[in-house]
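A quick aside before the break. I want you to see a complete sequence-to-structure record at least once, exactly as it would be stored in a machine-readable document. Don't worry about memorizing anything.
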Amino acid sequence: MKKIYLFLISLQALAQAGISQAQTFREKYFAEGEIIVMLHSNSDAERFSFSFQTMNGVQTKLGGAELLSKDMHCWLFHFDASAIDAGAMLEAANSSPFVQLAQLNHYGVQERYVPNDPDYPDQWAHHNHGQDTYYPNTTGDMQTQEAWDISTGNNGVTSSGDTMVVAVIDGGIKYAHEDLNYFVNYHEIPGNGIDDDGNGYKDDINGYDGVNNDMSVASSDHGTHVSGIIGAIGNNGKGVAGICWGVKILPIQGLYSGSASNSQKESTVLRSYGYVLAMRKLYNSTHGTKGAFIVATNSSFGVDNGKPAQFPLWCAFYDSLGLAGILNATSTTNNQVDVDAVGDIPTGCTSPYMIGVGRTNPDDTQSAGWGTTSVDLGAPGFWIYSTSAYNPPYVKMTGTSMSSPAVAGAIALMYSTACTQMMSDYKLNPGAIALQMRNYLLSSVDTSSILKPKYASGGRLNIYNALVAVQGYNCLGTGVHEHTDMGIHSVYPNPASSALFVDFWHYENQKINMEVYDVLGEKILEDNLPPLKEKAVLNISKLAAGYYMLKIFDEKGNCSVKKFVKE
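That is the input. The structure line, written in tokens, reads:
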């Protein structure tokens, strides 16, 4: 059965629980080393600043007071973010007798977005007010317009400065389309016949042709249409708006409708996924200097009635891609069948890094294939208006092929909202954070009585909810000043399934306290250990699969933080 990592805790429940402000922080971005406080009327900035010159023996360098509002007694202060954790500073400020309110200095304030693309009113999947004549008075859209009030894609760049890429494996793409951004491999020298970037491919400047194993990607209406759903440039006064406006499309020709000998072979698919994996692994190993920061793939193709047991290598690719940090959106069959019963490739594959997508209509009814194990969610796929390779340059198409790119685009948009802490964690453990993103996506769907018996998540893609869920990540980190000399040798295994072991250098006969926090910053497990010698064991068998932080305290209150993945 395909694993689903459910995001069970709502923001409202967290607020009602009354946990710390560091744990309930829900914003996309904040300015490092800056805090805003509203002082009591009988307090002043100098007294407040003086009272926080040190915290737990650490110099904060709090100062640089700037009056924001005299009437509100509101001040902006600066502190040393390299010495003091933002969460710890925020909690301490709110505990001060001089302070009424305190918060971090958020940025990312922007205009509310309804794009000016002339054909946007025809894109009911973003904002449905019954404009489709076949489905009047319906509202079954993806809440994209509401999501754009949070982010339109941040110009395709994450908070850590990485240029996001979605790999589109299809029949080809029209390179010269006015409304699409393409990935360019600037580390290759065109036409020299040399593998300049060391990724195993020569002259791969503008993508890869898995059919002919070269770089001659064909022009395809289908692939161009799919690409526009993912990332057509929004608010540029042209055509349509994709879901993530700034994302780069990496064209990969993985099938061909003509008579080429490799046109419909599984080996062509594997060759295409192999290129994706090589580019992302190169990016990871070179810390972003080469390769491509591919966050998602889209595959709007498959084998009707295919049995996963007969396609083990195809299915195995998704785990490898996922461990590198890539989620994979795949469309299920357009036949009206239960794919759990009859089979389907690739949506029948059981990897948690593969997201099977079915088709929904403007009234939120389901069309095409379904399966409560194989198909994770639905997304709009009826009469979708997007980019075309030919004239006219924009057309409408119907099918699950139009549904899965909506999920791929949503994944990219989610990464555009991820805070720097989440992106840092993503680079340290890309597979774990990719699963967390999948969790956010599937737990944010709009459920209905019609869709619950059809899809594993029970609902249809809601991009706004998904972006809100991403902001639930613990963006303030651990909320403690870490003591780096606690003598911890290793924490293993990682990932772990039932027990986590901690080896120490020099903590013989000391009492150790260990606490486990989830990505929301909520403490979910604590273990006070008796005096130990060299090893501590923590039972994590009851934790849900996911990404966690382990805080380890000694008798003096020193703390060290380690991160681990629960399988």
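Two observations worth writing down. Residues 3-28 have pLDDT under 50 and may be disordered. DSSP finds 13 helices and 27 strands in the chain. We'll return to this after the break.
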